[in-house]
Amino acid sequence: MTPVRTVRLEETATCHVLPAIRLCSGYKLWRYPEEKLSLVKMLKLLCVVAVLFCCGLVSGHHLHAPRCLPIFGKYPFDEQKFSGDWYSVANVFRPELHSEELKCDKIHFTAETVENVTKTHFDITFKTADGTEHHVEGRGQAFKPGLASVSSVAFRFPEDDKWHNVVKHSILATDYETYAIVHGCGERYDEKIDTFIKHDINQIWSRSKTLDEGVLKTLKSVMSGFDIVEDDWAFVDNSDC
Prior knowledge:
Blueprint: E1 4-9, E2 28-33, H1 37-57, H2 79-82, E3 84-94, E4 103-114, E5 117-127, E6 133-144, E7 147-156, E8 167-174, E9 179-190, E10 195-206, H3 213-222, E11 234-235
Antiparallel strand pairs: 1-2, 3-4, 3-10, 3-11, 4-5, 5-6, 6-7, 7-8, 8-9, 9-10
Helix pairs in contact: 1-3
């Protein structure tokens, strides 16, 4: 017989905001098989994401405006546990950065705090449909020392070998061992049309080349709070990495 434990989910009044985590609302006792406990922990963590995101909404920012929302990230955050290799398994870029389907999108993340300054580094490799491998480097500095989940990051692309506009980059949620939700937003001024343009980076990362479909569906639902519907997500094929 599969061992069963009783898990208490603490009352969180705002958890009902996102349909995917309606489970968290109220104060109830739920029974789950042992292997489902990690999912329960994940759902509780995502409740925190919903609360933080709603705080951003009530501040008066509108999703469709060409401005970035107030930045937030996972807290507390263990930069050493998060460091290492990740795979992007699904992404939404706005505007679209690549016209081709991406493959083998791998990220190596590191963070280091020296003299009260926390710096982050992203070493990204991916392949386009024709098999060409690309390398992108990201360098960032955390908003607060020791909190690498929220940082300002600049990226250097192989096409021009230049550092591009700073992006507000955040690790919204992670269990360190399985998944991570990543969001980035930057703004730039286009003098030709005299307006500001917003660039969004939305990704779901996995420690392995694939992610359980149930977990992936839940994470996509959470990101619907960023005005992303399920059909917007692009699948990343990491099978031949």
